[in-house]
Sequence to fold (152 residues):
Amino acid sequence: MDQTALADTPTARCAYYRRTCDLPAGVHPEIGRIIVRAGLVGAITMPAALGQKVRDDLTAHRTGLGPIISHVRSERWTFLTRPDLPDDVRLFAEMFRLNVSIVPSGGEIALPSPADVKGRYRNWIVAPRNGFRPYGSSIVDTVRSCAKAGKR
Fold:
């Protein structure tokens, strides 16, 4: 990510996310956190260890790697995706059993922000550089594959 584009204010970074990364971001007025509402953007959150396996698998298979956020204290990663997943209870339950959650339409997705003091809360594992985001279905398929491989 172009560091000069990320001035040290939530408003400036939010503008970068909107213009360059095609993320419909806004600044939460009370706390200065930058958020995106799920809908035009999808998100899948999982434990960091599984997230690393998913990222490595996507990289090995030369699948497009989109933005990934690390939630430092909870040791979870969020993959930003295209919003192609159905609102399907069976899918949500399957992912829940793997400790993976799909952010529902309208849910808040917190992005790294200058308000996150020294990156204690959220950091980019893979920063957005443009509007590319992989299909949510490809992330779910990779989660399934990695989870199945881990059980062998």
